[in-house]
């Protein structure tokens, strides 16, 4: 077994590397998405779905304004606009890891 290599401040580099590799093992990466923990992925999906539904419901009444086109088209267009706008508000992506206990509590991690 090799002798531990210590940094100038006395920390064991091998232990730090093993800890970093353990943390990286639980990370999700996707095309066009940053590396996220399991809690962040779950929170982003939940927040996106809830935001899309709420956004569609908020914007839906705008479809009843007589702005031209058929009523059905206006309602569908405004509902889609609301869903897209709402899905962009993904607060839970940052909050879910805190709720699931993924943070160690040593840093200021949010509104908890």
How would you sum up this structure, described in words?
With 112 residues, the protein is mainly alpha-helical. The protein has a domain at 31-99. Helices cover 54% and strands 8% of the residues. The protein has four helices and two strands. It has a two-stranded antiparallel sheet with strand order 1-2. Strand 1 and strand 2 form a beta hairpin. Helix 2 (38-59) packs across helix 4 (92-99). It is rod-shaped, with a radius of gyration of 22 Å. The model has no long low-confidence stretch (mean pLDDT 78).
Helix tally equals: 4
Radius of gyration: 22 Å
Q: What overall form do the CA principal axes indicate?
A: rod-shaped
Beta-strand content bin: 5-15%
What's the total count of β strands? Answer: 2
Which series of helices and strands comes N to C? HEEHHH
The helicity comes to: 40-55%
The overall average pLDDT, rounded, is 78
- In whole angstroms, the N-to-C terminal distance is 44 Å
Low-confidence stretches: none
With strands numbered from the N-terminus, the spatial order across the biggest sheet is 1-2
Structural class by sheet pairing and helices: mainly alpha
Q: How would a crystallographer describe the biggest sheet? A: 2 strands, antiparallel
């Amino acid at each position: 077994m090799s002798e531990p290599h210590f940094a100038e401040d006395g920390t064991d580099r091998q232990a730090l590397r093993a800890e970093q590799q353990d943390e990286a093992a639980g990370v999700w990466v996707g095309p066009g998405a940053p590396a996220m923990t399991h809690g962040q992925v779950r929170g982003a999906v939940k927040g996106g779905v809830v935001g899309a539904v709420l956004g569609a419901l908020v914007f839906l009444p705008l479809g009843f304004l007589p702005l031209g086109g058929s009523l059905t088209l206006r309602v569908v267009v405004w509902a889609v606009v609301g869903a897209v706008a709402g899905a962009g508000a993904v607060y839970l992506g940052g909050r879910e890891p805190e709720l699931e206990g993924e943070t160690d509590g040593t840093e200021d991690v949010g509104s908890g």
